[in-house]
Amino acid sequence: MKKSLLAAALCVLVSASAYAQSATEGPWLVRARAVHLDSANGDTTPLALSINNKWLPELDISYFFTPQIAAELVLTVPQKQTLSAGGTPIGSFKHLPPTLTVQYHFQANGFKPYVGAGLNYTRISAVNLPAGVSVDRNSFGPALQAGVDIPLAKNLYFNLDVKKVYIRTDVAAGGSKLGTFKVDPVLFGIGLGWRF
C-alpha cells in the first residue's frame, strides 16, 4: 500500500512538474543558426579528395517530451561543395544532410546545457565530376551533439552548438570502386532559439 501511494505521488509530482514547465515555456523550441562545416576530409582512394569548409544556414525544431528529454530535427538547404583532388578542384556536388537527435537537457543556474545523439541521412545531388567518376548518392551515419541555451529574455535563448556527423560516400571510376571519401564534418553553430 505504501509503495502504491509513493508511486502515485511520484507520478503526480512528475506530471505537475512537466505541466508547469510546458505552461511557462511550451514544448517547442525553434532555433536559427549560422553553422561552420569543418570537414575531416578522410579519403581511402588514391585521389587525395577533399571538400571546402564553409558557413551555412541551419534551422532546427525541437520538441520536449519532458523538461529534460527532447528530440531535435536539423534542417538546411542543399549545400554546394567543391571537390578537389590533391588540392586541385575537379568538380562539385550538393548535399542535403537532415539530422535527427535525441537530447538530454541539464538545468544549471539558468543555463541549459545539453547532449544528444542520433542519425544523419545525407542525399548527394547535382554531381558534376569528371567523366567516368561517380559517388554514392546516399549516406547514413550517426551524429553526436553538445550545446547550451543561454536565456536572453522570456522564451528567447542564445545558442551554441557543436555536432560530429558521419557522412561517407563510395567513389568509383569506370565502374570500379576506388575507395571511400569520409566527409565526417564537425559543425560549429551559433544562433538564437525561441521556446513556445
Automatic annotation (TrEMBL):
Signal sequence bounds: 1-20
Keywords per UniProt: Signal
Coiled-coil ranges (or none): none
InterPro entries hit by this protein: OMP/PagP_B-barrel, OMPW
One Pfam family matching this protein: OmpW
Source taxon at top rank: Bacteria
Subcellular location: Cell outer membrane
Protein known as: Outer membrane protein
Species name: Rhodoferax ferrireducens
